[in-house]
Write a structure and sequence with these properties.
By secondary structure, the protein is α+β, with helices and mostly antiparallel strands. It is about 20% helix and about 25% strand. It has 3 domains: about 10-70, Roll (Structural Genomics Hypothetical 15.5 Kd Protein In mrcA-pckA Intergenic Region, Chain A); about 80-170, Pseudouridine synthase (2-Layer Sandwich); about 170-290 and about 305-314, Pseudouridine synthase. It has 7 helices and 15 strands. The strands form 3 sheets. Strands 5, 6, 7, 8, 9, 12, 13, 14 and 15 form a 9-stranded mixed β-sheet that branches. A hairpin with a 3-residue loop joins strand 12 (about 215-225) and strand 13. The termini are far apart.
């Protein structure tokens, strides 16, 4: 394996046994953690060769051949700029932490390809200074919510709080409670999903229950049952990407409105739901510098509350 300075990450290797016979775009995606689309782009740009020759994305890899891949350098992540975020409320603030109620359509921090609002932008616009530990574009971030998941997030203002909170999330001593409206009626009405999660083999941005993935544990309990759906209270032990959405889909009870994971679009349309019905309801942890237990609670935003109202009337 070698690296060419200034020309991306250049790698050469024999074709691994695990991808022999696979399409080249699928193999490249799996080997380097890319989407199939990005892998195909790299191939079409001439950055993949087999035995020194050019290849097409649908060609198959053969044992005994030499594979060369040049991965372009990743683009620089954008930096956060101060910009008000409508609808984002500050639930609590002190010298060490700030707890926000994140609205739908907002991500935690700037990322490549995202042009919408971020929690960091909103806090900067409010004059709130965050811890500078970690990457510059993720200052103060100790956990995240999906763009279309609303609810509570805590961020660190002091460096001491950042260190303590990062460790608390890693050691699973933070209470994270969500409410989700899922399709159908889980059986049993309460239970635990203990199933590893990793990127979906399709390489299309989804995550999935995959043997050998990262350990992931979700506890759920039914709060209300309706004709076509159930309101669940969900507690997370781990915090994997899309964990609740993946585990509920694995139970064949996807979050209402979660079309990425197989939700029924007709039900979402009837309830006026334009995103997954998932809300970070409560957040509890030991204060990082004062030592006492703190707990914060949110209320349903208007779109989720309206969907529940329709179900209760039905």
């Amino acid at each position: 394996m070698s690296t060419q300075a200034g020309a991306g990450d250049h790698r050469g290797m024999p074709v691994p046994d695990g991808v022999e016979g696979e399409r080249i775009d699928a193999a490249i995606a799996r080997m380097f953690g890319l989407s199939r689309t990005r892998a195909a782009e790299i191939i079409s740009e001439g950055n993949v060769a087999v035995d020194g020759g050019s290849v097409g994305k649908s060609d198959r890899l053969e044992a005994g051949t030499w594979l060369e891949v040049t991965l372009p350098p990743p683009p620089e992540p954008p930096s956060a700029r101060a910009e008000p975020v409508p609808g984002m409320g500050i639930v609590h603030e002190d010298a060490d932490i700030v707890v926000v109620d994140k609205p739908v359509g907002v991500v935690a921090h700037p990322t490549v390809g995202w042009t919408g609002p971020t929690v960091l932008q909103g806090l900067l616009a409010s004059g709130i200074e965050l811890a500078t530990s970690g990457a510059a574009e993720r200052q103060g971030i100790v956990h995240r919510l999906d763009a279309n998941t609303s609810g509570l997030m805590v961020l660190a203002k002091s460096e001491a709080a950042y260190s303590v909170l990062k460790r608390a999330f890693k050691e699973r001593v933070v209470d994270k409670v969500y409410h989700s409206l899922v399709q159908g009626h889980p059986d049993p009405l309460r239970g635990t999903v203990d199933a590893p999660i990793d990127r979906h083999p399709a390489g299309d941005g989804r995550w999935a229950v995959v043997a050998g993935g990262r350990p992931s544990v979700t506890h759920y309990e039914t709060l209300e049952a309706f004709r076509a759906a159930s309101l669940l209270e969900i507690k997370l032990e781990t915090g994997r990407t899309h964990q609740i959405r993946v585990h509920m889909a694995a139970l064949r009870h996807p979050c209402v409105g979660d079309h990425l994971y197989g939700a029924d679009p007709a039900l979402a349309e009837r309830l006026g739901v334009r995103r997954q019905w998932l809300h970070a309801m409560r957040l509890g942890f030991e204060h990082p510098t004062r030592g006492h237990r703190v707990e914060f609670e949110s209320t349903y935003p208007d779109d989720l509350a309206a969907a529940l109202h329709l179900l209760r009337e039905d």
